[in-house]
Amino acid sequence: MRTNTLLTLSATALLLSACATPDTGKPVTYQDVHSTGVVAGVGVESQDVTAVTDVMVKDILATPEVVKRSQAARVILDAAYFENESSQRINKNLLVDRLRINLQRAAQGKLLFVSRESADMVAQERDMKRQGVTDSGTLKQANATAGADYRLIGRINSLDARSAQSGTVERYTQITFELIDLETSLSVWSNLYEFKKGGQDDAIYR
């Protein structure tokens, strides 16, 4: 009789365990991209991306050699020559795309942006128009695709230190930007953004 009771109790416990609601943890919430999130480390994070690109947009627009020309300058602004030499894995397009889009919106025609990333796509479409595969569209046909006056280059660097006793981590991050004259190779504008963070870093960047 006692054995049957123990078996019944065990079966009941297993059944209740199987039916229990799993612990789903805290619900996901939207975070402000301009401030430190719930997961933070010593690397480049959303608040750093927004801060550095906002600074660079304002500084470029305040550079007469770039924006105060009789004819709007043509700029290539992509990640092709923007290098990550830091200890952190980061998608460089997070910085470059935000910089280009916000700069284009703020420039209001004072700068024109040449898309080298779209070169193959544009060439294919131009060939189809000229071969009669498609009509010419509504835009006036150009003799050639647009050449550029300036191109963005830049670099992300970092310097790390870790305490062997406490495990505390410090990282100094430096992000540099330059616009290069594509005829003379002169640097017509440059700026940098730097910050230093420290703490018990356990964030994993992907």
CATH class division: Alpha Beta
From the spread of the alpha carbons, the general shape counts as elongated
Structural domain tally:
1
Number of strands: 6
Could you describe the 3D structure shown?
With 206 residues, the protein is of the alpha/beta class. The protein has one domain: Rossmann fold (3-Layer(aba) Sandwich). It has five helices and six strands, in the order αααββαβαβββ. Strands 1, 2, 3, 4, 5 and 6 form a six-stranded mixed sheet that branches. A hairpin with a 5-residue loop joins strand 5 (169-181) and strand 6 (187-199). It is elongated, with a radius of gyration of 27 Å. The model has no long low-confidence stretch (mean pLDDT 88).
SSE order and pairing:
Blueprint: H1 2-19, H2 46-61, H3 64-67, E1 73-76, E2 82-84, H4 93-107, E3 111-113, H5 119-130, E4 150-162, E5 169-181, E6 187-199
Parallel strand pairs: 1-3, 1-4, 2-4
Antiparallel strand pairs: 4-5, 5-6
Question: Descriptors for this entry?
Answer:
206 residues, alpha/beta, Rossmann fold, 32% helix
How would you summarize what this structure contains?
The protein has 206 residues and is α/β, with parallel strands linked by helices.
